[in-house]
Amino acid sequence: MNPLAQQDPAIWDAIEAEGRRQQEGLEMIASENYTSLPIMQAAGSVLTNKYAEGYPGKRYYGGCEHVDVVETIAIDRAKKLFGAEAANVQPHAGSQANTAVYLSCLEVGDTVLGLDLAQGGHLTHGMKLNISGRLYNFISYGVDKENHRLDFDQIAKLAREHKPKLIVAGASAYPREIPHDRFAEIANEVGAKLMVDMAHYAGLVAAGVHNSPIPFADYVTTTTHKTLRGPRSGLIMCKEEHLKLVNRNVFPGTQGGPLMHMVAAKAICFDEAMQPEYKMYGQAVVDNAKTLAETLLSAGLRLVSGGTDNHLMLVDVTAVDLGGKKAEEALDRCGITVNMNMIPFDQRRPADPSGIRIGTPALTTRGMGIEEMKRVGGWIASALRSPDDAAMLEGIRGEIKDMCEQFPVPAGRNSALMPAN
Ligand code: PLP
Question: Nearest CA to 90 among 102, 78, 80, 103?
């Protein structure tokens, strides 16, 4: 008996099919992962029924005594996990977290430095159509043309010239460790506040395999669903002195009632990230990325910055006479999901850029390791070299399906959706 399948077969069938896709293919989008079953249970729980505008102990709705417990636990765990002075666990997503921080420390028209979207930044770091680019005067910094590393000479020069009120560090497509201390030095010199958006590598910070921004930044924002491996949501951490304004700018500044089922799911994610085995997961994500990068390089592919220190790599597919769109499609036909991506100083358009972005978090969560990465690297290289060879792509798809059977997704295909009794 499955109430969802009975009531709404169209939606159930699509969920079923997505569960099958997640099990049978290789999920290599750098920002995706698989949550645990307890996280899915919380995300699908009765807490979705509850309104709780306000904060624990100060709500605008009755009946909040139980959700107050949940949110207090989530705040305490976020602070403990990352060593932060204060936390707000209500942002619905990473974009909302960033917007609330901007409202907390900027006036409309203020100047901010952020990483160029075309060089690895995020939409919320000043893209013209995003609220960040519409409300504030974002000046973009970038990476060095030769080595593709963050260009700190340029960042310091821009900071001295434009005197920003805020510097935003963090990226969506940067394959190297981000030195937060260098951003802090520049921010201190010009009297700017520092916000680090660690959405992509928060799980690596939690596992101790990437340096933490907490000692250096006034504000740290993150999503909770990427390397961190929690539910699809957001989080802000800050110095205690900034909390009052941050809280006010999450609610009522940018959001109404918090999604308490997601707050509960975040609390579980933070607890999971404090377990000893999480360190092994974080290390394995990085080790797997290194092996995959080496395999691709030795197959003759070109990587932005020549490799990776973290969970992702950017492959310049123009080296094999491809565009990003066709590369993404060829891999998709094999059952390997990646996304096309601009690379630094790209000469092509965003709709068909020069690169693809590949990440290892989701495969690592399934338990895949060094041997599997070598196989995956071989498949990727073959597919990119012969993207029109339908029979070969089909063959790879079959091999991938077989390998995936040995690495079931952690929560099972649809288990959280099945009734408990
Ligand atoms: N910040 C960074 C660096 C990201 O990569 C992303 C998502 O890709 C976000 C923020 C936004 O997160 P969300 O999609 O949850 O709004």
Answer: 78
Note the pLDDT of residue 416.
53
Please state whether beta strands 312-316 and 336-337 pair in parallel, antiparallel, or not at all (unpaired). Answer: unpaired
Tokens of 158: 């821009």
Residue 123 CA to residue 117 CA, distance in Å, equals 6
Q: Is the pLDDT of residue 180 over 60?
A: yes
SS3 360: coil
Which position among 35, 124, 222, 223 bears the catalytic label?
223
Residue given tokens 């802000």 in the structure block: 236
- Residue 188 makes CB contacts below 8 A (sequence gap 6+) with none
Q: Please give the mean pLDDT across all residues of the chain.
A: 96
The Cα–Cα gap between 52 and 55 comes to: 8
- Between CA 210 and CA 108 the distance in angstroms is 33
Beta-sheet pairing, 234-238 with 86-88: antiparallel
Tell me, what DSSP letter sits at residue 125?
G
Instruction: Dump pLDDT digits (tens) for 237-278.
Output: 999 999 999 999 999 999 999 999 999 999 999 999 999 999
- Minimal CA–CA distance to 369: which of 332, 338, 403? 403
Q: From CA 32, how far away is CA 10, in angstroms rounded? A: 25
Q: From the CA of 233, give the closest atom in ligand 1.
A: 15
**335-347, pLDDT tens digit by residue?**
999 999 999 999 9
Is 232 part of the annotated catalytic residue set?
A: yes
Helix (H) / strand (E) element for 78: namely helix 65-82
CB 237 within 8 A of CB 86: yes
**Residue 53 annotated as catalytic:** yes
How many angstroms is it from 126 CA to the middle of ligand 1?
13
pLDDT band at 414 (very low <50, low <70, confident <90, very high): low
Ligand 1 touching residue 223 (CB < 6 A): yes
The two three-digit tokens of residue 113, written as one number: 């430095």
Q: Comparing C-alpha atoms, which of 208, 313, 266, 272 is closest to residue 410?
A: 272
- 38-47 pLDDT, tens digit per residue, is 999 999 999 9
Looking at residue 397, its pLDDT comes to: 96
| Residue among 133, 132, 168 at smallest CA distance from 150 | 168
Are the CB atoms for 285 and 364 separated by under 8 Å? Answer: yes
Contact, 164 vs 111, CB < 8 A? yes
